[in-house]
Request: fold
Amino acid sequence: MSISIGRKQQVEGLHGSAAGRDKFLAFLADEASEKIVKQCVSEMALPYSSVVRGDVTKAIQQLSAGRSPIALMVDISGVELPVSQIHHLAEVCEPGVTVIVIGDRNDVGLYRDLINAGISDYIVKPLTQTLAQTAIDNLFGVSKPAARTALSQKQGQVVSVIGARGGVGASTVAANLAWHLANKENRRVALVDLDMYYGTCALMLDVPAGGGLREALENPHRVDELFLERSMLRSGDKLHVLASEERLEIKLTPDPESLTPLLAILRKQFHYVVVDAPRAHREMMHAAALQSNTAIIVLDQTANSIRDTLRLRQFTETADLSAHRTVLVLNRVGEAGKDGIDQKNLSDTLGTGVQVQIPFHPKSAIDAANAGTPVSSFRSPISTAIATLADELGGRRIKTTKPWWKFT
Reply:
């Protein structure tokens, strides 16, 4: 089967791939299906495409360690609990991936379960040249508009981290949370530090702050996937940092509205977008909070911090942010000793308890600073608390009466 020149140009022009990301990737469990799909890809001259032998379990294994394609075809033939495997696949895939499933069971119930799990279509073997060609065309919307499924519509979570006052450790929480999500939970994470003069997130992750963030905020029309690929700095395989370290004599006038296109693109590429939103830049903080799924307010056991937490909560729970969640994180618990406001009085004043407590543990912080790595990379009371915060974001929090570090 051949493909016309006009149709070929349509396919080649869709969804330009950034470096390191396939346009189309197929995992087929049998030789016959693999051969048919390879022939289709060859005839369509589809760039950035691969066809490999394997089923959905191999897809999960491979995509857990690398970038996801824009479109994906997976085989569930002979796989136990195929719907559960598709749900697992959705967890490891980047947001926005369109998926077609190939299988050997002609079962209406299975079809419905797979569609409900978020796939675009289910094709029963034997796979023919016509079926494969139509499936690939549909993935890219050539023969008809591409189906917008739950998986292809999935977007990453935006989490803004705001300090109730200066010095409470909001940047430390943001950097360590991003590191934990990327390295302990194997998520693709973007960390955006909006403080372009004094931001410390890049420093804590031992990466040099470039000028990518300033460029993105001053020229939002230039921001696309390729721009971000070139501008973001990598801290390991899964964590990407967007930050700037501008000279103090330069006057910056970033447009808060420029965050909208930037975060929209990041949400399509990353499972989590963690934004360190300093409260000193009120307009930028508001813009970040407005687009966040979760706003984390970091406070300590001081009266000033409690006062400003009340004001920030009122701000983040206004009508335009009412659909978003606010999480209170009490940092450096115990640092002030008896002079600190006890947690009962703190909760009574706030009208609610804090969701996560991070203990004051200077040894862990000093060890991490000396090693040039985030404190989350060490087993410590602080890293355990950061893991609890990650569980809170993911809805996996198991409440305990007492943190383990209080027993030591």
